[in-house]
Design brief:
The protein has about 300 residues and is an alpha+beta fold. The protein has three domains: about 60 residues, no CATH class; about 100 residues, no CATH class; about 100 residues, no CATH class. Helix content is about 30%, strand content about 25%. The chain contains six helices and 16 strands. The chain has a five-stranded mixed sheet with strand order 1-4-5-3-2, with no helix packed on it. A five-stranded mixed sheet has the order 7-6-9-10-8. It has a four-stranded antiparallel sheet with strand order 11-12-13-14, covered by helices on one side. A hairpin with a 4-residue loop joins strand 13 and strand 14. Helix 2 runs parallel beside helix 3 and helix 4 runs antiparallel to helix 5. The longest helix has about 40 residues.
């Protein structure tokens, strides 16, 4: 080989998958910086390559036969459950080991076997093609649609297919949980809005408290995004012990008749001065204080009701 053979032609072209970024790499350690405008979306593209830079020429059909290090398994969403996977107790923990597959062909059903490969060493998995089913996939899909808890009764289910079923079932449960939480959040916001319209200012709420402390406490806590549970007279005259739920956890505090906090039930001590900060807050503001302490991982609950 002479020195001329080491020179790269000015019009050398390269077909490669692009899934983001300005780096273009291939097996063998070759790499280029993508100059100029990036592709509008992920896909297969032709690039014009120079010694150190590359530029986009246009889209091309996927020549997936050039992929290497191929993996076969079941597709769950955009994650690959590779053949050889084993069933574990917690699908959420196992899910972290399932790699993402890029450039997936649209319209694939659940529990399809697919082949994916890489375009460079340790690169992301790129979809190649759908693989033939092994047989029990349709029965597993039916079990999923019927919300069956397991596929133990389905014959010839491989450990990888079982793991895919458990992973997909867990994903569905998590999605449903998020929908419920979002619905609860919207209902809570709507309730707060209505209560704010009815008892829109603190002075009015405190007037209501003189006649109906429970109703006033309910509205005050709702202003802060918490749910009133109950209240009772404290040992001291003019004080009430209030229980409420906030962000899925129960709390208890003591407040005065005008709903100013006496004992927050959480640590509000300035350790530099030993000064208690409880009395600086009201039933309206206490939930926000709890949220802030929790976000900073400094929440200490004195009255644990869990």
């Amino acid at each position: 080989m002479g020195w001329k053979d080491l020179l790269q032609a000015d019009d050398e072209r390269l077909v490669a998958p692009w899934v983001g970024g300005r780096s273009l790499r291939t097996f063998g350690g070759r790499s280029w910086h993508i100059a100029g405008k990036l592709p509008p979306e992920h896909g297969w593209y032709e690039f014009k390559v120079l010694p150190r830079k590359a530029s986009v020429v246009g889209t091309v059909d996927a020549p997936t036969e050039i992929l290497r290090d191929k993996v076969t398994g079941y597709l769950v969403g955009d994650r690959m459950v590779p053949e050889g996977s084993t069933r574990v107790g917690d699908p959420a923990k196992q899910a972290a080991s399932f790699e993402r597959v890029h450039l997936i062909e649209p319209g694939l059903d659940r529990f399809v076997r697919v082949i994916a490969g890489r375009f460079f060493d340790e690169g992301p998995l790129i979809f190649e093609s759908q693989e033939f089913p092994l047989g029990p996939e349709e029965a597993v899909l039916t079990a999923f649609e019927d919300a069956t808890r397991s596929v133990d009764d389905v014959a010839e289910v491989t450990p990888a297919l079982d793991a895919a079923f458990r992973f997909e079932s867990w994903r569905r449960a998590e999605a449903e949980k998020r929908r419920r939480e979002e619905q609860e959040r919207r209902e809570r916001e709507e309730r707060r809005r209505r209560l704010h319209e009815q008892y829109g200012n603190g002075a009015l709420r405190r007037e209501v408290a003189k006649e109906d402390f429970g109703e006033a406490a309910k509205v005050a806590l709702a202003v802060g995004g918490a749910d009133y549970l109950s209240h009772r007279q404290s040992y001291h005259k003019g004080e009430f012990v209030v229980r409420f739920r906030f962000d899925g956890r129960r709390y208890e505090c003591t407040c005065s008749e005008d709903m100013r906090i006496i004992d927050a039930g959480i640590c509000l001590i300035n350790h530099a001065t030993n000064e208690r900060g409880d009395t600086r807050f009201t039933l309206e503001s206490l939930p926000a204080v709890i949220q802030q302490a929790n976000d900073r991982h400094r929440l200490v609950v004195f009255r644990d009701l869990e």
